[in-house]
Amino acid sequence: MPEGHSVHRIARQFRQNFQGHRVRVTSPQGRFVDGAAILDGRTVTDVKAVGKQMFIDFDDSVWLRVHLGMYGAWDFAGEITQDATIASANGRMGHTNQRGTDLAAAILDDAGENSLSSIGAPRKTRVRMSEQTKGLAGSEWETFPPEPVGAVRVRLLAEHAVADLRGPTACEVIDDSRVGEVIAKLGPDPLLDDSDEAEDRFTAVVRRKPTPIGLLLMDQSVVSGIGNVYRAELLFRAGVNPHTPGKLVPDETVRAIWQDWSRLLRIGVETGQMMTMDNLTGDDYRKAMAHRDDRHWVYKREGLPCRVCGTHILLEEMGARKLYWCPVCQR
């Protein structure tokens, strides 16, 4: 499932290429025909991400809410204008597979985290960003817009850009009041609000719960955007046993986790990858950006020695998701 940094990157890509443009909206798959009819011909006025959910604002206060879930992803095609801070070399945006921040110097992940293959939905895409289509012989599409491929739930088509949505958990047309209701149920997102009040809200909720902290961090009503990778890494970095009840985690530790999440989220948005190891430079940094095995402390390292103490990293299930942790460093 895409974590918060991916959804923020996708929202920024939409703002670059669709905000201010009138769009044709269709449902090639046929499962969103009524919603598409409501949105068709409207202008995209704003796009926002809150945690793992994205909200596209159309004129007359009509919104499209999208939650990608486990298998959802967006494909882009056409003359895509790239945000220099989140430049994506080509193709699919969903999960954590956008390419790096500098097209000329992007360090591409070899396991799909930063490539055209989606982590959760390993489907090849024919979509190419504009920089990649110029002068390419044998391009997979020759006219714009390209024909939809596969089960496209909704297509947004502007004059020079198209976005296709596949496999979302949620895709619905809502109004202003419903947007407010959905967001009110979500925990704070530090990319939208990194104020002391947001930190206090997160801390207060965690500190009154008997629920294990490893479950609380995945609860989107407690904090927005954290998924399986960031959960494991944040808890290791804080030295916290994932089974510790929230109310027993010291106040200063809970606040440190919030502040760390704020920092790691920003790194994820700017690089497109979940870099959770600190102080890497030169070859070590390039290696870590290219290989997931070299940029995480515990995630996907079950049975391997802890990078700090040498104890074998444990793997168990918590909240129906895999949990990785060190029983010594996280006592």
Automatic annotation (TrEMBL):
Residues 297-331 form the FPG-type domain. Transmembrane segments: none annotated. InterPro entries: FPG_cat (IPR012319), FPG_N (IPR035937), H2TH_FPG (IPR015886), Ribosomal_uS13-like_H2TH (IPR010979), Znf_DNA_glyclase/AP_lyase (IPR000214), Znf_FPG/IleRS (IPR010663). Its EC number is 4.2.99.18. Its cofactor is Zn(2+). Residues 2-94 form the Formamidopyrimidine-DNA glycosylase catalytic domain. PANTHER family: ENDONUCLEASE 8, ENDONUCLEASE 8 1. This is DNA-(apurinic or apyrimidinic site) lyase. It comes from Mycetocola miduiensis.
